[in-house]
Amino acid sequence: MSGQTAAPVLQAGWKYALDNNHPVAASHHHGLTTLFDPFSTARTAALLDLTGRRCLEVGAGAGSYARWLAGQVGRNGEVLAIDIKPDLLAAEPDLAQLTVRRVDITDEEQLRVRVGGGWDLIHARLVLGHLPSRSTVLARLAQLLAPGGVLLVEDWYRASGDPVICAPSPEAAQAYRAFHTVQGRCFQEAGTDPTWSRRAYRSMREIGLVDVQTVIHGTAWPGGGTGCALIASSAAQLRPRLLAFGLTDEDLALLSELLNDPRLVLAGHLLYSTSGRRAA
Question: Taking the model in full, what pTM does it have?
Fold first, then answer.
């Protein structure tokens, strides 16, 4: 892969690196569900009893976690799932405890009017790391908690080390590394901070949350598996940007082959899961 670093020419108005309305978005969210829902749900269940609770899911995506919450809160509980583009979740069958709402969490008035406060659990997975205003949004979300309520934020930490554990050849390993570098630039251009997840602990302490703790989850991703399929769907959504940053159609065709080759094994992104509680 060429991996040239020429100045990109990007489409005006692009705000986020990925898009819920992209043709591969549904498969992308399916990959996230498969990789992380078992961890996220177990982590949540260990933090509090959800029966009868009011739960807010931020950046709900396709809604698998929100639907799980709706099955946990019981008939006296409530789940509000919000997303700037909630189309994937809105198309699903309704659950009595689940409400879906279009909300831009960077807009303080929308949070106040369309979300409100008094939440026992607020969960945001792979959301705040993409927002340049993440610290402000974190503080606003904490203010929406009920006394004793829990804020759970989960974001990837994109390590700066070698992402390749093993590969079919040295050339294949270098080809993937070149893509990995350019992909990182695409996300950073869109406002993503790949290291913010490691600062979430300190940020929660600074805004007054207590009982702050971080649990780190990670696995290896072999070619042909869910993790590599997730990378492939990201590459499909980022394709115009990847080309603008200097990769070629041939580079991306080779990437597709590699991601389906079981001889390629990648170090999957670490998920930093940080929780904090509002003092009673």
Answer: 0.90
